Amino acid sequence: xxxxxxxxxxxxxxxxxxxxxxxxxxxxxxxxxxxxxxxxxxxxxxxxxxxxxxxxxxxxxxxxxxxxxxxxxxxxxxxxxxxxxxxxxxxxxxxxxxxxxxxxxxxxxxxxxxxxxxxxxxxxxxxxxxxxxxxxxxxxxxxxxxxxxxxxxxxxxxxxxxxxxxxxxxxxxxxxxxxxxxxxxxxxxxxxxxxxxxxxxxxxxxxxxxxxxxxxxxxxxxxxxxxxx
Amino acid sequence: xxxxxxxxxxxxxxxxxxxxxxxxxxxxxxxxxxxxxxxxxxxxxxxxxxxxxxxxxxxxxxxxxxxxxxxxxxxxxxxxxxxxxxxxxxxxxxxxxxxxxxxxxxxxxxxxxx
Lengths: 229, 114
Prior knowledge:
Number of helices of chain B: 4
Distance between the termini of chain B: 62 Å
Radius of gyration of chain A: 22 Å
CATH architecture of the largest domain in chain A: Up-down Bundle
Order of helices and strands of chain B: HHHH
Number of domains of chain A: 2
Oligomer: heterodimer
Mean pLDDT of chain B: 84
Mean pLDDT of chain A: 85
Strand content of chain B: under 5%
Helix content of chain B: over 70%
Structural class of chain A: mainly alpha
Largest sheet of chain B: none
Low-confidence stretches of chain B: none
Largest interface: A-B, 89 and 69 residues
Low-confidence stretches of chain A: 1-37
Number of domains of chain B: 2
């Protein structure tokens, strides 16, 4: 893959020889970069906001891990009420999984367009991501409605408790993600969505892709493996 | 400036460049190919659960397929393949702790005969 460091790398080549250049670069003010925008780059060489997002996602791994473990631990231990084999609709959930995966594709295309300063494309893909996210939530709302009519409530059995807690928390994350993406879209109408906003969009993208990878795990463990009884 | 200082300064510049939207250039075609592979794997997952002959190997098969999807999204869409190793390290630490929780709880349940 080609690597592009942009003006920052050129600034290093041009300025690193001078006295004090290392300090100027380390605090994120490359000399001669041609702008005065402040970046918060720490000793890891990664922007602090991006590092913070990855630390948050690492904590989210443990958060979802606990609920996935709870679902697996109580699998097949319901004494009454509907069971996963009776209720889970694999064709429908495969479709909703496809929708969420495509939203991730749209998100990465939005980030790429913003990084290349193609603002109209960035906005288009960002809106597509949010709409696909809303589509996924629509599938989940339909599924929940169907399950509640079939007698599966949060308290009816262990399957209901662990299923709604796990998928509900994931749905909550998707809802927050959709809200975040729509807020970015609305903000982009005012301030644009180009190179200057690319990091903000990338952070939202990292969150969105994380929600996607969590669903990949849930789809396999909760839905696909339910056929094994 | 010695090599270590230069490397650190270069890292800072790279982070600064990324903060201003100047990131690794991945061709659009690569993202589209990854999207296509993700769709195909999902279709395969959907198909294999309905093949009775595959039931004995279904668990490892599904784990491999979902692992591949996970790796593709994390590697390409989340840019872990191209980004600094420290980010992949943080993410891996979270996953390892989550896996540790799974193994720990599994051991407790097994011990209690649950």
